[in-house]
Prior knowledge:
Blueprint: E1 4-8, H1 13-28, E2 32-39, H2 43-47, H3 53-56, H4 60-82, E3 88-94, H5 97-105, E4 110-114, H6 120-126, H7 129-136, E5 141-144
Parallel strand pairs: 1-2, 1-4, 2-3, 4-5
Amino acid sequence: MFRNVLCPVDGSAESLEAARVALDLARKYGGKVRLIHVVPLYLIDLLSNRVSMSEVDLLPREVEERLAIEGRGFLDKILEELGTADEVSCHLLEGAPGEVICTEAEKSDVVVMGSRGRGRLSGLLLGSVSQYVLSHCGRPVLILPRNRTGS
């Protein structure tokens, strides 16, 4: 049923937990997990991903390269935490995170992702990637709540 599991990660504890759940789900159905990290390319996405206003003055390519290195680090850390390479592939992509995730979901049976749990104002101003995916994705979406207990 869920043989192709997509799991977007952003380096947060919630995305690590989502990766664990995604792997459990894939193993249950004899499938595979595609971990993706999306490097944002638009100002509003950059600001929501720990880029300061002073960094906006940097050449866009410099910011993009720094975020790509950081993203590769997130993927490597999660792969190390999962302790497997056979069932998991990692992909670093670029674009608007919600849109890229929805596009990648077309190749998947389910999307498993964590919720960063932004407050109402921040979520309203910056948008919520998980909310975007939930609203626009054509596949089932499992969003793990923030501070989830148990496994």
